[in-house]
Amino acid sequence: FDDRDGSIWFDGALVPWRDAKIHVLTHALHYASSVFEGERVYDGRVFKLTEHSERLVNSARLLGFEIPYSVAEIDAATRQTVAAAGFADAYVRPVAWRGSEMMGVAAQASRIHLAIAVWQWPSYFSPEAKMAGIRLTWAPWRRPAPDSAPTASKASGLYMICTLSKHEAEAQGYQDAIMLDHRGHLAEATGANLFLVIDGALHTPAADCFLDGITRRTVIDLAKARGIPVVERHIPPEDLAKAQEVFLTGTAAEITPVSEIGEHRFTPGRVCETLVADYDALVRKG
Ligand code: PMP
């Protein structure tokens, strides 16, 4: 991924892609003192840019550091990077981290860095192709409790168990894995939130120990606008037996219908179709 043409915004200016490098004694590499975002560009515009920039700043504060740029400055830097790349449909990856001035658990004097990269991400699937649904298995790891980790932060360290779970799922031929929370309730996939359709209503795990996704909130609003009731609650895994449709939501996943979780089978149907179409219309509208 590092050997390509293009520019990356790095601590205040665009630098050549191949030159966007850091030292091996970077605190973030050793102690996971980094936070990031994932954003999508549709028709040249970043969808919900300011919400993402705000979440980045907040994620850093939850890890005890302040990004040395305001939300407005991060928005502007992101727009500059997207414009320089010139892609109509793309993915944006801002990342902020503690630098290499101190080596040890404590790193109060470390410099805080910010980089923003953009790469091409066309929409691969037509809404029809998506409707087949993806196959998921159970993750071997649970989402930690909010008093065990800063679970509201999009912190790199929280992805250790996601990578482990995703690798195990893919090794078994599944596309992704569903993680339970610390209580044993349904939580989310390794990089996307979870929704169940039960008798015409949307049920989604209450986001009290994992990321309350920007797509999750968007889909809740779209559903309410359609008159679909939305219930945010603690959902035991057995409730999957009551669900007619299941889907994932996320910036990268958008709305991805699910056909299988463990022993449960689902047939993506009218609710998935409606929300996929509404989401597509919304992101293209800007
Ligand atoms: N949960 C996790 C673990 C994620 O990585 C993501 C993707 N950022 C989400 C949920 C969905 O969040 P969003 O809709 O803001 O992309």
TrEMBL record:
- In Swiss-Prot or TrEMBL terms, this protein is called Branched-chain-amino-acid aminotransferase
The top EC class, named as a word, is transferase
What catalytic activity does the UniProt entry give for this protein? Answer: L-valine + 2-oxoglutarate = 3-methyl-2-oxobutanoate + L-glutamate; L-isoleucine + 2-oxoglutarate = (S)-3-methyl-2-oxopentanoate + L-glutamate; L-leucine + 2-oxoglutarate = 4-methyl-2-oxopentanoate + L-glutamate
- Renumbered to this chain, the signal peptide range is none
Keyword DNA-binding found = no
Its EC number is 2.6.1.42
Question: What cofactors are annotated for this protein?
Answer: pyridoxal 5'-phosphate
Q: Which UniProt keywords apply?
A: Amino-acid biosynthesis, Aminotransferase, Branched-chain amino acid biosynthesis, Pyridoxal phosphate, Transferase
Keyword rRNA-binding: yes or no?
A: no
A Pfam cross-reference name: Aminotran_4
Q: Which PROSITE patterns match?
A: AA_TRANSFER_CLASS_4 (PS00770)
Q: Name one GO molecular function term.
A: L-leucine-2-oxoglutarate transaminase activity
Which pathway does the protein contribute to? Amino-acid biosynthesis; L-leucine biosynthesis; L-leucine from 3-methyl-2-oxobutanoate: step 4/4; Amino-acid biosynthesis; L-isoleucine biosynthesis; L-isoleucine from 2-oxobutanoate: step 4/4; Amino-acid biosynthesis; L-valine biosynthesis; L-valine from pyruvate: step 4/4
Source organism's superkingdom?
Bacteria
Q: Which GO terms describe its biological process?
A: isoleucine biosynthetic process; L-leucine biosynthetic process; L-valine biosynthetic process
Role noted for this protein: Acts on leucine, isoleucine and valine.
Member of which family? Answer: Belongs to the class-IV pyridoxal-phosphate-dependent aminotransferase family.
InterPro entries on file: Aminotrans_IV (IPR001544), Aminotrans_IV_CS (IPR018300), Aminotransferase-like (IPR036038), B_amino_transI (IPR005785), BCAT-like_C (IPR043132), BCAT-like_N (IPR043131), Class-IV_PLP-Dep_Aminotrnsfr (IPR050571)
